[in-house]
Automatic annotation (TrEMBL), chain A:
Subcellular location: Cell inner membrane
InterPro entries cross-referenced by the UniProt entry: AAA+_ATPase (IPR003593), ABC_transporter-like_ATP-bd (IPR003439), ABC_transporter-like_CS (IPR017871), ABC_transpr_MalK-like (IPR015855), ABC_transpr_MalK/UgpC-like (IPR047641), Mo/tungstate-bd_C_term_dom (IPR008995), NA-bd_OB-fold (IPR012340), P-loop_NTPase (IPR027417)
Organism, scientific name: Mesorhizobium tianshanense
A GO molecular-function descriptor: ATP hydrolysis activity
Protein name: Carbohydrate ABC transporter ATP-binding protein (CUT1 family)
UniProtKB/TrEMBL annotation, chain B:
Transmembrane segments annotated in the record for this chain: 24-46, 89-113, 125-149, 161-181, 202-224, 260-281
Homology family: Belongs to the binding-protein-dependent transport system permease family.
Membrane topology value: Multi-pass membrane protein
Signal sequence segment: none
GO cellular component: plasma membrane
Keywords, sorted A to Z: Cell membrane, Membrane, Transmembrane, Transmembrane helix, Transport
GO biological process terms, semicolon-separated: transmembrane transport
Protein name as it appears in the record: Carbohydrate ABC transporter membrane protein 2 (CUT1 family)
UniProtKB/TrEMBL annotation, chain C:
GO cellular component entries: plasma membrane
ABC transmembrane type-1 domain ranges (all copies): 91-305
Organism listed in the record: Mesorhizobium tianshanense
Name this polypeptide is given: Carbohydrate ABC transporter membrane protein 1 (CUT1 family)
InterPro entries, per the entry: MetI-like, MetI-like_sf, UgpAE/MalFG_permease
Protein topology in the membrane: Multi-pass membrane protein
C-alpha cells in the first residue's frame, strides 16, 4: 500500500478547465472519497491519477514516485468502473486472471491467486460464467475481484455502486467498507452520492466546478462546511439557506428578512456577522436543528407549512421563509397539516452563517 | 342496448377489415417484389441448362426439353480453351479480391479506431474527407489513374487494381468499423491498461476480439466490392491472362454473342461466391451497414 | 522521501511558448499513426488524380496520351462541351436516370421494409432473397437483363405476345423511347434492396412506446405511420436517398454493358459519355473538363451529404 499526493493538479480541454489546482494527500491505508455533482471534475481527477488522461500541469505522486508520465500499467494501481468494464468475451476466471497474465506471472500462481480472490468474494461457482450471465451485484463483485487479485498500491473506484439498485447498493457499501478495513487498502473513491462518501470515507474531498472545495473528515465537513456549496451538498435533506440582511440598531445586530421579521443573534454570531463583506448574510440551518412550534413563542419566526412528508420514524416539513425552502424534521407524533401556521426557532449554537457575497462561511475570529 | 352492441361489433368488423386491408396490400406487394427479384435469377438458371438451340426458340421453352449441364462443363473444363480462360479469370478475381480484403482490414481497422477514440486536431476534417471520397465516381479518377499507373509501372498488373480497390473500399470500411468501435465502452480499454496492458495490447487483446463482427462485415464488403468491380479492371488490364471475371466474361461473350446459355452459366458462377458469402454472413453485413447510418 | 520532478518541470516550461494548435497536434502525434496508412493511400489515389484532372481540362491533348505534346487552351474545352448538343441530351438522360432510379428504389425499398417489419413465417428467407440482386455483380445483372429484354428470345416479349398484348416481341433496348426506362428498371432491381436494408434498420429504432402512445391517442395505422414512424426515419431517409443518388449519378456498368449509350445517345449518361470521350475517342482534355464539371456537381451534392451526416452527429452529441 502507498500514499498518494496530488500537487497543483490542472487539466484543461482547450479553454475549459476541468480540474483546477487540486492539491491533496491521501495517506497510506486511507479511504478518501471524491464527491461532487456531475461535471465537477471528480472523475477527471481520478483518470489523471490512473494515467488514463494526460495531465496539463502539476504532479501526481504514488508511493515515492512521481508518476506524471507513466503509463497506467506502470503506476501499480487498480480501478473499478461504474459500468464494471468486465471483458465481455472472457469468463469470470479469465477476467480475474487478465491483470496477472499481463504481469507475466507463472500459470500456477495465477490460478492460486484467482481462486483465492474468488473464495474471498464468494464466487467460486461463478468462475466459468461469462459476464453477461451474471447479475449486476455479481458483476460488481467480479470487478472488485479483478482489482484486488493483483494487490496494487492504490485502488481507484469510479462510482462503482451507482448502477446497482438501492438495496444492493447498501449491501455493497458495507462490503467495500469491510474490504477496506481488512486489507488496509489505500482507496480513492469517486461518487456523486454524498451519503456514500459520508458513510464510507475516512476523509472526503468535496469538488465543484473543477475546484477542490473542502477536504476533511465527513464529520468535520458536516459540522463545519467552508462555504454554501458544501453546506448544501452534504447532508440530506439539504441544509436550508435563507438569504437575510444584517442591520445594527442601538448597538444591537440582528438579521432582518425582506418579509419583515428579524432574528436576534448570540454575541458569537454577532462577531461572525461583523466579518461579512457586505450586509448580505445567509443563514444556514440543518433540518434537525430547527424547532417547530405550533404557537407563537418569543424569538420564533412565523411561517406556513408547505408540504408534510411522513417517513415513519421522522416527519419532514417544508416551509418557505424569505423566499427559501426550509426543511424541518419533527417526531412523527406531531401532526402538521399543509398551510398550517407554524413558528420556527433557530438554535444559535448550531446555525451556520455565510457571507452573502462570497458564499464563504463566516468565522468568529 | 342491442343497438350499442351491434354498432360495436360493426365497428370491430370495420377495423378488422381495415387492418386486413393493410396486411393484404403488404402481402401482395411483397409477392410482386419477390417476382421482380426472383424471376430474372430463375430465368438465368433455366437458360443456363439449355442447349444453344433450345435457348433461341420462340416462344421460349419455359423448361428445357432436354436440360443439360454442357455449359457448365465447358466453362469448368481445364482441357479446352474456354474452360482455361474462365478458370484463370476466376482465379484472378479471387486473388485480387482476397488481397484487397486483407489490406483493407489492415488499413481500415486502426484508422476507424482512431476516428472513434482519439480527438486529435483535424479529426473531423479527415473523417469527412474520407467520407467525401465516397462521392466521386470511378470515371473522374480513371484518366489520371491510368496515367499514374503507367508512371508507376503498374499497368497490366493486379497491383493497379488492388491499390485502386483499396481506396474505393476504405471510406465505407472505416465508416462501418467506426460505428462498431463507438459502441465498445472505452472503459474496457481503460481497465485493460490499468490491468497492465499497453495501449496497443489493450487494442489487440480486448477491442479487436469485440469488433470481430465489424471486421467480418468490412471484409465481406471489400471482397464483394472488389469481386464485382468492372470499370478499372476494364481500363487497366488488356492482357487476356490477367483479366478478372467481369471483364473476362464481357470480352469473351462479345466474341460469342449468341451463346446465351454459356453467358448465363458464367453469370451464375460469377455470382455464386459473393452470394454464398453474403448469405452465410448476412447478419454481420446488414448490421454493419446500418450501424453508422441509423444509430444516431 | 525523494520526489523526482525534473521531467515534469521540463514539460511545463516547454508549453507556454508553443501556439495552441501546434501544441495540440504535437501532443496527439501518436494518434496520427493510426490514420496515416489510410490517408497516404487516399492521397496517392485521390488527391493527385483530382489535381491532374483539373490541370488537363485546360489543355488540348493529342490522342494516345503523349502528354508532353499538350497545349494550353484555357476554357476552350469547357465551351466545346457546353455548346455541344450531346451535352444537353446526356445531361437530361443523367437527370432522368438519377432521379428515377433513386426515388423509385427508395419508395420500393421503404415499402418492402414496412411490409417486412411484421413477423411472419419465412420472413428471413424472403428478406435474404430480396437482397441478392444487390450483392451480385452489375455485369452479371446486365447480361441477365439483356437476355430478358432480348428482342427475339426475351422472356418479357414472349409473355406480352402470349397474353396478346403485343403482336411481336417489342424491342426494349434498341428503341430511343424505351431504352432509358428499361435500364432504370434494371438499376432499381439492383438498388432497392439497399434502401430496404437501411429502412429496415431504421424501423427498428422507432420507439414502440411512441407508437403505443399514438394508438392510445386514437391514431389509425396511416396516422401512426405519418406522424410517428416517418418523422422518426427522416434522417435515415435523407442519408439513404443521398447515398442512392450519388451511386446512381456515378453508375456506369449497366448502361455501358447493356447499350454502350445507344441507340443514338439515348442511354448515355455523363459517366458513360466521359468514358467514351476519353478512352474511345481519346479526347483527354475534353473528358477532363467534363470530369471537372461532374466534380463540381458532386461537390454540391456532397455538401448536402456531409450536412446530413453531421446533422446526425450533432443530434447524437446533444442527446
Amino acid at each position: 500500500m502507498a500514499h498518494v499526493v496530488l500537487k497543483d493538479l490542472v487539466k484543461t480541454y482547450g479553454t475549459f478547465k476541468a480540474v483546477n489546482d487540486v492539491s491533496l494527500t491521501v495517506n497510506d491505508g486511507e479511504f478518501v472519497a471524491l464527491v461532487g455533482p456531475s461535471g465537477c471534475g471528480k472523475t477527471t481527477t481520478l483518470n489523471l491519477v490512473a494515467g488514463l488522461t494526460p495531465i496539463t500541469s502539476g504532479d501526481i505522486v504514488i508511493g515515492d514516485r512521481v508518476v506524471n508520465d507513466l503509463d497506467p500499467k506502470d503506476r501499480d494501481i487498480a480501478m473499478v468502473f461504474q459500468n464494471y468494464a468486465l471483458y465481455p468475451q472472457k469468463s469470470v476466471y479469465k477476467n480475474l486472471a487478465f491483470p496477472l497474465q499481463m504481469r507475466k506471472l507463472p500459470k500456477d500462481e495465477i490460478d492460486k491467486k484467482v481462486k483465492e480472490a474468488a473464495r474471498v468474494l464468494d464466487m467460486t461457482e461463478l468462475l466459468e460464467r461469462k459476464p453477461r450471465e451474471l447479475s449486476g451485484g455479481q458483476q460488481q463483485r467480479v470487478a472488485l475481484g479483478r482489482a484486488l487479485v493483483r494487490d496494487p498500491a492504490v485502488f481507484l473506484m469510479d462510482e462503482p455502486l451507482s448502477n446497482l439498485d438501492a438495496k444492493l447498493r447498501v449491501q455493497m457499501r458495507s462490503e467495500i467498507k469491510r474490504f477496506h478495513q481488512d486489507l488496509k487498502a489505500t482507496i480513492i473513491y469517486v461518487t456523486h452520492d454524498q451519503l456514500e462518501a459520508v458513510t464510507m470515507a475516512d476523509r472526503m474531498a468535496v469538488m465543484n466546478g473543477g475546484y477542490l472545495q473542502q477536504y476533511d473528515s465527513p464529520s468535520q465537513v458536516f459540522a463545519h462546511p467552508v462555504n454554501m456549496f458544501v453546506a448544501s451538498f452534504i447532508g440530506s435533506p439539504a441544509m436550508s439557506l435563507i438569504p437575510l440582511e444584517a442591520s445594527t440598531a442601538n448597538g444591537n445586530t440582528v438579521l432582518t428578512s425582506a418579509e419583515g421579521w428579524s432574528l436576534q443573534l448570540s454575541p458569537r454570531n454577532v462577531q461572525k456577522v461583523a466579518r461579512a463583506t457586505t450586509k448580505k448574510v445567509v443563514l444556514g440551518a440543518r433540518h434537525s436543528t430547527i424547532k417547530l412550534h405550533k404557537s407563537a413563542i418569543p424569538g420564533a419566526i412565523p411561517a406556513k407549512a408547505y408540504t408534510v412528508e411522513p417517513t415513519g420514524d421522522v416527519t419532514f416539513v417544508q416551509a418557505f421563509l424569505s423566499g427559501a425552502i426550509v426543511n424541518i424534521s419533527v417526531p412523527p407524533n406531531i401532526a402538521v397539516a399543509p398551510d398550517e401556521q407554524i413558528w420556527l426557532e433557530f438554535d444559535q449554537e448550531r446555525i451556520h452563517l455565510f457571507d452573502g457575497e462570497t458564499e464563504m462561511a463566516l468565522k468568529a475570529n | 342496448m342491442s343497438t350499442i352492441a351491434e354498432t360495436a361489433s360493426r365497428d370491430r368488423t370495420r377495423r378488422r377489415m381495415r387492418v386486413d386491408g393493410w396486411r393484404w396490400a403488404g402481402r401482395i406487394f411483397l409477392a410482386f417484389m419477390l417476382l421482380y427479384t426472383a424471376v430474372p435469377m430463375i430465368w438465368m438458371l433455366i437458360t443456363s441448362i439449355k442447349s444453344g438451340f433450345a435457348a433461341t426458340q420462340f416462344p421460349p421453352q419455359w423448361w428445357p426439353d432436354e436440360p443439360t449441364l454442357a455449359s457448365y462443363q465447358k466453362l469448368l473444363d481445364p482441357q479446352n480453351s474456354v474452360g482455361q480462360d474462365f478458370l484463370r479469370f476466376f482465379w484472378n478475381s479471387l486473388f485480387v479480391s482476397t488481397v484487397t480484403t486483407i489490406l483493407s482490414v489492415i488499413v481500415a481497422v486502426p484508422a476507424a479506431y482512431a476516428f472513434s477514440r482519439f480527438s486529435f486536431p483535424g479529426r473531423n476534417f479527415l473523417f469527412f474527407a474520407v467520407l467525401l471520397r465516397n462521392m466521386f465516381p470511378a470515371v473522374i479518377f480513371l484518366v489520371p489513374l491510368f496515367i499514374l499507373m503507367r508512371v508507376l509501372g503498374l499497368m497490366n498488373t493486379h497491383g493497379s487494381l488492388i491499390l485502386t480497390y483499396l481506396t474505393f473500399g476504405l471510406p465505407l470500411a472505416i465508416w462501418l468499423l467506426k460505428g462498431f468501435y463507438d459502441n465498445i465502452p472505452v472503459q474496457l480499454e481503460q481497465a485493460a491498461r490499468i490491468d497492465g496492458a499497453t495501449r496497443f495490447q489493450a487494442f489487440i487483446l480486448i477491442v479487436m476480439p469485440l469488433s470481430t463482427p465489424g471486421i467480418i462485415a468490412t471484409a465481406i464488403y471489400s471482397f464483394i466490392g472488389a469481386w464485382n468491380e468492372y470499370i478499372y479492371a476494364y481500363t487497366f488490364l488488356s492482357k487476356n491472362e490477367q483479366l478478372t471475371l467481369p471483364v473476362g466474361i464481357q470480352r469473351f461473350f462479345s466474341e460469342n454473342t449468341t451463346d446465351f446459355p454459356g453467358l448465363m452459366a458464367a453469370s451464375f458462377m460469377m455470382s455464386v461466391p459473393v452470394v454464398v458469402l453474403f448469405l452465410v454472413l448476412q447478419r454481420y453485413f446488414v448490421r454493419a451497414l446500418t450501424e453508422g447510418a441509423v444509430k444516431h | 522521501m525523494t520526489i523526482v520532478t525534473g521531467k515534469a518541470e521540463a514539460r511545463r516550461t516547454l508549453q507556454p511558448g508553443r501556439p495552441g494548435v501546434l501544441r495540440s497536434i504535437w501532443e496527439h502525434r501518436a494518434d496520427y499513426a493510426y490514420v496515416l496508412p489510410a490517408i497516404a493511400v487516399m492521397l496517392i489515389v485521390i488527391a493527385y488524380p483530382i489535381y491532374y484532372t483539373i490541370e488537363l481540362s485546360f489543355f488540348k491533348t493529342p490522342p494516345g496520351l503523349q502528354l508532353r505534346d499538350k497545349t494550353f487552351i484555357g476554357f476552350d474545352n469547357y465551351t466545346t462541351i457546353l455548346t455541344s448538343e450531346v451535352f444537353w441530351t446526356v445531361t437530361w438522360n443523367t437527370l432522368i436516370w438519377t432521379l428515377g432510379s433513386t426515388l423509385i428504389s427508395f419508395v420500393l425499398g421503404f415499402a418492402t421494409a414496412l411490409a417486412l417489419h411484421r413477423e411472419f413465417i419465412g420472413r428471413g428467407v424472403l428478406r435474404a432473397t430480396l437482397i441478392i440482386p444487390w450483392v451480385i455483380s452489375a455485369v452479371a445483372a446486365s447480361y441477365i437483363w439483356k437476355w430478358i429484354y432480348h428482342s427475339d428470345f426475351g422472356i418479357i416479349g414472349a409473355v406480352l405476345v402470349g397474353l396478346g398484348l403485343a403482336d411481336r416481341p417489342p424491342n426494349f433496348i434498341d428503341n430511343v423511347s424505351t431504352v432509358l426506362p428499361s435500364l432504370i428498371v434494371v438499376n432499381i432491381w439492383r438498388e432497392f434492396p439497399f434502401a430496404m436494408i437501411m429502412m429496415m434498420a431504421g424501423l427498428q429504432t422507432v420507439p414502440d412506446q411512441l407508437l403505443r402512445a399514438a394508438k392510445v391517442d386514437g391514431a389509425n395505422a396511416w396516422q401512426r405511420f405519418w406522424h410517428v414512424t416517418f418523422p422518426h426515419l427522416r434522417n435515415v431517409s435523407v442519408v439513404t436517398i443521398l447515398l442512392l443518388a450519388v451511386a446512381n449519378f456515378n453508375s456506369f456498368i449497366i448502361p455501358w454493358i447493356m447499350t454502350g449509350g445507344g441507340p443514338s445517345n439515348a442511354s448515355h449518361i455523363w459517366i458513360t459519355h466521359i468514358y467514351e470521350l476519353a478512352f474511345g475517342r481519346q479526347r483527354w482534355g475534353v473528358a477532363s473538363a467534363y470530369s471537372v464539371l461532374l466534380f463540381l456537381t458532386l461537390m454540391t451534392l456532397g455538401y448536402f451529404y456531409v450536412r446530413a451526416l453531421t446533422g446526425n452527429e450533432r443530434k447524437e452529441g446533444s442527446a
